[in-house]
Known about the structure:
Blueprint: E1 11-16, E2 24-30, H1 38-41, H2 61-71, E3 75-81, E4 85-93, H3 96-105, E5 116-120, H4 124-136, E6 140-144, H5 147-156, E7 163-167, H6 175-185, E8 190-195, H7 203-209, E9 213-216, H8 221-241
Amino acid sequence: FGGGPRDLESALARGGRLDPGRRYGAIRVADSGAGMDQATVEQIFEPFFTTKEGGHGTGLGLAVVHGIVMAYDGAYLVRSRVGTGSEFSLYLPLDETISEAATETDGTASLRGDESVLIVDDEVDLTDMLSIGLERLGYDVTCCNDPFEALHAFEQDPGAWDVVVTDHMMPAMRGVALIERLKTISPGVATLLCTGFSDGATEEAARRAGADAFLMKPLEAHRIAQQMRALLDQRASTTVGAPAG
């Protein structure tokens, strides 16, 4: 992947921004495999996109990598050529104090919070990606990959979480059913139901179950944070404006 005419044949993808005033650590991973064309390279970081056969990949691995790099104000460059291989270059800032200052000026300040969030999804890679992004915004995040485990934890201490974010299509229990049970235990907990186009859940069904918000996949931490902040800030203003007695 050096310079010269052969780079003109390479498929490229890049994201993030490098600040000349900051120090970065670089991670590079390369292979000599089948390589990818431009159309494929442009999709590889999308959640659930995979070139593998069914049952041999979730399509979340690179989405998690993308989430980590973006959460830490990093950048990436991907070069690939069909028949030659691929090279991934990741750049992560080394100075955390500067990184925190940058976070407050990149439009995410309004998404920050310190509330406790319970994320329920049977896809471990997805919960890892979302927890990294939300913790970066200041939230205290707990992840459960089994809805019954989440329900048990909630029963033990219903006041431990301000918001519950749950997937709908899970093997053990559907998200709508989980929300119904959580609301029975603690009617005031804020709940977000997440679903894909093929999961069969509708916003109307989610509302009937008690969900306070409804999100379509693919999911990103900032989209969840936007919904959470809207719910929590609205509840806070309602509480403040309520008459005494």
